[in-house]
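Dear Dr. H.,

I hope your travels went smoothly. While you were away I took the liberty of generating a structure for the chain from your last submission, since the lab meeting agenda had it listed for discussion. I wanted you to have the full record in hand beforehand rather than looking at slides cold. The sequence, exactly as received, is reproduced here:
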Amino acid sequence: MALSTQTLPAWQISPADYLAKRDVQYRLEAPASCYVPMADGCKLAIDVYVPQRADGDDRSERFPTLVFFTPYYRRFKMHSGAKGEPNPNTGKFRDFFVPRGYAVVVVDVRGTGASFGTRDSFRSPRERADSKQIVDWVVAQAWSDGQVGSTGVSYLGAAADFLASTGHPAVKAIAPLFSVWDTYADNYFPGGIQIKSLTAIYDDLMIGLDHDRRDLLKNFSYFANPDFEGPQPVDEDPDSSLLAKAIYEHLGNFRQTDFMAEFRFREEALPYDPSFSSATISPYSVSDGVSPNVAILSVSGWCDGAGYMNGAVARFLTLKDNPRHLLLGPWDHGARIDMSPWRKAVEPSFPLLAEILRFFDTYLLGRDTGLRSEAPIHYFSMHAEHWRSATNWPPAEGDKTLFLSPGVLNDEPGTDKDIAEYKVDFAIGSGHNTRYERIAGVDSREYYTDWQGRTDKMLSFTSENLPQSLEIAGHGIVDFWLASSEADAAIYAYLTEIEADGTERYVTEGLLRALHRKEADPPNTYRAAWPFRTYRRSDAAPMVPEQFEHMRIPLLPVGWRFSAGSRIRLSFAGADADHCGQVPHGRPPKLQIALGKDRSSKLILPVTAVGGSD
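The corresponding predicted structure, in token form, is as follows:
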């Protein structure tokens, strides 16, 4: 690759170097647990871990507190003599932060674990109100220094967003990890298409947890330890009688499969509650309540579900007046796996907790960590296998446009009026080692290893061999003219690298239900660097069969280097039978893509660097 600023070290102080020099003065002891009553009388179970001095000095101290709000049990009760981690959800944070001078509080959100109450929705507004009251309790404790941060993966990350949106003055910093900004578009309905496989699997998980159904939990590797004996009772409940009452209340919890099906359109109210829509369970809807003094670290990965990385970017772009940082790595949901095809090990080598520590050290402990002098954005470029830094998103220095001609991608638009035709096959899928499995609780270890030949059954366009390497970062755009034999269609666009030896590598994808093709300006609460859609009923419109319409599909963002000698392939499908339902039901459409100069269709790639032979 030609020399550029991109080849310089991404960090002035690497996360590993920071961690190596960071002092550890405290030890971790068993937690105290109790019930904290909410304003409506509902009692929430919490665990409290207060740092104890490693040198044995027992003088009283005050600490900043990290609060975790989880629906996945704050702690499991363990069988006598059992081994294993009783808190697989947040244990690594507890073990890491308490010895470094942070109090940690883990909360069973209402309707879960040992807490009382019922869950009336996914990320209920009642949980948001609870979180503010929990912070009131925390800062009133003798060990609290009055400062609170919050972090956690997925559900817990969104809970951190909601906590910050309450405007509680004690909340100084949040690090939402692998979490949504918009539950509709980032998670369950990307491109307006429902990910049905996600709701079904996740529903089983939540029944297993909320109802203490261990026969279901054994199907999820995170919770399959046979020594788990349900939620850990709090200290004041030695005979588990209170726990039994709490679990009985959980039988009234909502069901995920039924609940998510209510949200056909974004921001459309529930039929029984005009104040409740998909916005209600999305952090963007209350983001104007976040004080500009709250520091924010947004983290996601290139294979983080159907759009969690969009959520991380949107949070960064939206809260532009806050101290903010963005980290995007070669990770799946939760950074459990390094999903780069060129990885050296399955487990990620990047010390993510060290970077989170540096963030909280800066904004809660007030240490001079050098973080404020770093670039606000760090992202990983796969195949280059290097971290990059940037001051803006997207970091691209320019675009490369490839025009669609019959079967090929060209540097120049065609001059004829060719049309590519494709009969949708509802049996086509993307497999079962994709970006969609991990967010449903599947313990994926490999990603897209069965991609070879999969796009041969799709409508594909392939470039000539690249004369030199090409590195991209950001959202590619598929800009095309489409006609359908039906009034609706689901469009799946896949980007593939075909290496010189014929190996096919999945790069990224984008999807769009044609009903939602209308674009709009994003609201102030959801800033986007890609084509934005409201997904509202008022903007939805059937297509006129056989009539060409112009539309754009943003590909999910990625950092990727195409090698010299490789070819770039763009493929279209009309179904992903492994994850989504049919659109329209029982009516596989015939799709046409216009390729002529007057209606050119093209792929636009966000280029950061062009180099020589690899």
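Two observations you may find useful: Residues 125-139 form the longest helix (15 residues). The mean pLDDT is 94.

With kind regards,
E. W.
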